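Archive entry. Fields below.
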Amino acid sequence: MAGKTLYEKIWDQHVVRDNGDGTALLYIDRQLVHEVTSPQAFEGLRLAGRKLWRVDANLATPDHNVPTTDRSKGIAGIEDPISRLQVETLDQNCAEFGVTEFKMDDIRQGIVHVIGPEQGATLPGMTVVCGDSHTSTHGAFGALAHGIGTSEVEHVMATQTLVQSKSKTMLISVNGEVNAGITAKDIVLAIIGETGTAGGTGYAIEFGGDAIKALSMEGRMTVCNMAIEAGARAGMVAVDQKTIDYVEGRPYAPKGEQWDLAVKAWADLHSDADAKFDEVINIDAASIKPQVTWGTSPEMVVGVDQKVPDPANEKDDVKREGMVTALNYMGLTANTPMNEISVDKVFIGSCTNSRIEDMRAAAEVAKGRQVASNIKLALVVPGSGLIKKQAEEEGLDKIFTDAGFEWREPGCSMCLAMNADRLEPQERCASTSNRNFEGRQGQGGRTHLVSPAMAAAAAIKGHFVDVNELIK
Amino acid sequence: MEKFTSLKAIVAPMDRPNVDTDAIIPKQFLKSIKRSGFGPNLFDEWRYLDHGEPGKDNSGRPLNEEFILNQKRYNGAQILIARENFGCGSSREHAPWALLDYGFQVIIAPSFADIFYSNSFKNGILLIKLDADVIEQLFNDVAANEGYELAVDLENQTITKADGSVIKFDVDEFRKHRLLNGLDDIGLTMQHVDDIKAYEQRRSAEAPWLF
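PREDICTED_STRUCTURE:
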């Protein structure tokens, strides 16, 4: 019998019952909750007179709507009354149902996908869900983690389970070593450029190969975060010593004897050598250049040394029309060198790239330099209050503010512009977030996805540039 | 959830690939704490010429006349045909809520994003996957015939065209069953409370750090 993939191992450990109709009832170990996709779920429970099955499996924080500016007035300081109501509603629901919440004034508050791992609330081998597609992030810990809709949020709250059908499995192996200046973000953008945004639909992706093993936990989270941008609900990386070292000692991580037991069990959280994947994709790490997206889908990506693609060279009708629409929206002309495209705003943050390593990478580029005069706003938004504190202890905030960046409070911010941070129509942004969809960062806004170092480099130069020109 | 059995309705075409949930319902409308009322803001940025905000009266807003759903011939459409990877991006269930609130009960495309697929069925929307060339023909048929209708029958898994020709489609048995009967997932799962408790007992002995 062939061995099992990591996905199959975690799946098998969580089957409560086989429903006999192609689905299984899968046990959920952790649910993360935020203010946008939970109010209707709590309301559903209330209307049906249901309670949470296991209150302690849930952890909540407001992140999408919170302001990144002055927080001294607390919730009352949220200017938009509808945003304020949503954050207040989360507070009320968590109080009513007894869910632990890191509120807006708690230093542990932050983006759900940053605080889960930071608190040790995400552990290897767990099933993790959240009403947010970027829940795939947590797969970096050898967990099975994916985004769900609000109906499923309510289902997990009420039953601690989900009705699931098994995904197919895909291994994406990034082989060899990456070149200088290439980060996890470049790796995952290059992967999506290869697979397309629907390439992973129906699959759980395991990322492997030397270049993935060489990444820090922060880097692995960045890669898994964007699995959903390749169409896969779940992305995952096998557990190794780095995983265990990262988790050890965190507030929600097991302690003492339980820790020893857990570490022993986690040793098996990798695909067996003879496991069969439904699909295997190999990528040569050395071929990856610093990536910049040019269109309105993450698959519309090229190396910074390349040009904006020409739709005339695309044979597929639907794709060609898609390219024309994208170029039109982005205000770009085919064959323009990417490094000649100037930007108006820079955003460094989001669940993809707001961890300490991201802050350090951007600061390294910004250090001793000045934001270019054509940049209207360069924002740095750490992923949690604790990351903000750590960055400040390392003096990174000072590097940013000296260079002309704004240093903000933690939250989702301009990744999706539900709070006050947004692009104005036709403004062009170098962004470390995950989606360059039309209107994502503000109606009419034009998003180019890049790594934190590349975003900082664009801020300094005023246009896209190979970060290696600044960090040689 | 409302049950879905069959529907004969006007078809509207959404002729672009990778229609994401940000386009289906832009982020500012996600601030609502309700499940209803999203229909007037479905495809808001494509549909109107000004910027939409929650609470704004949509009736007087300037319409983008070029946008497909603003064309008179598609008034009352309840079936949407679309291109590949429809519903990609964010997991927001507000997307199917908005489509349903507008009136769409069936969406036909070559492929759908996973989370959107699951969210739609949970709200009584039938998503049908067909081969790209069959979809291409539907786009042509819709373009050529004003008031073009299709008849969808879930029980028999058929789509009947105006000329009487029939297209068969596949759907997961469990999703079909739930849709035909309008079943609530939580209620169904609650029938297996003993299994959940037994699992927890076994698992907490095996992996106590998870409990």
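CURATOR_NOTE: The first strand of chain A starts at residue 15 and ends at 18.
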